[in-house]
Amino acid sequence: MAILLAQHMPSDTNRPKLVVQNGQLALQSAPNQSKIFSIEVWTTAFIIFTSIYCNLHPERFQELLKYMSIIRLGAKRCNNLGWKHYDEQFRLRKAIDPNGSWATVDSELWLIYINDSTENKNYNSGSTSVNMNTGSNLKCYAFNYEGNCFKQACFYKHVCIRCNAGHPIITCPF
């Protein structure tokens, strides 16, 4: 979602960098500097997303409005960024199963992210995680895009979304 707000960033911040890793030259994409940490910024990005998405799926417009309402309600109910993590994980699930409704609350994610008062406490160094859903191929969005995950018991794999190695995507050499 933060990529949708990229027009507010100087263009040279997104240029890839040439780095030396393991004795080899590699092209590393710069991490996205535009981050969403408030519901107001998220809403702006989501309106842009809705505009783009509804060009291909106009029948989903009402669902997306309901989804925005759900996320804004989540932001009111929790004092941390649980609403943001809910949104990220929900959209990852939508990428796997695009036929599901945007207007339906994912109760598992809601319980994990919105009702979790320990969300901002650092229980996990980011190098290891308790993966209670070992049969899942879902990867942790917080680990990949923020570099670490603060969940006491994260249900998602702490591996790179791009190459499945043990680093986050923001440091992926590929």
Quick gist of this model?
By secondary structure, this protein is mainly alpha-helical. It is 37% helix and 6% strand.
Structural summary, described in words:
This is C3H1-type domain-containing protein. There is one protein chain. By secondary structure, this protein is mainly α. The chain has two domains: 77 residues, no CATH class; 54 residues, no CATH class. 37% of the residues lie in helices and 6% in strands. It is built from five helices and two strands. Strands 1-2 form a two-stranded antiparallel ribbon. A hairpin with a 2-residue loop joins strand 1 and strand 2.
- Largest sheet strand order: 1-2
Relative strand content? 5-15%
What level of helicity do the residues show? 25-40%
| Individual helix count | 5
Give the ordered list of helices and strands: EEHHHHH
Low-confidence stretches: 116-135
Please tell me how large the radius of gyration is: 17 Å
Helix/strand/pairing category: mainly alpha
* Total individual domains: 2
The assembly state of the depicted protein chains is single chain
Largest sheet: 2 strands, antiparallel
Protein name: C3H1-type domain-containing protein
